[in-house]
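Hey, resending since the last one bounced:
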Amino acid sequence: MKFKVDIIWDEEGNEWVATSDDVKGLVLNCGSIDVLIERVRFAIPDLIEVPGSFFVDFNVKSYEFGVFPDG
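The structure tokens again:
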């Protein structure tokens, strides 16, 4: 199985936010993108309730001139 996850920088909240149209209910946020990605990997099996392996295609976006904030 393959899932697309969008990660965007929320400047107002000063954090990264992960959502997915492929994984119903996936909405996670964190100040560190590395920690957020790990949280997404652990959350997907619980949300899809289907055992087995999967692949996550992360689509990372920052709307501040393409600059990724430190985190």
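The CA atoms of residues 7 and 46 lie 19 Å apart.

Sorry for the duplicate.
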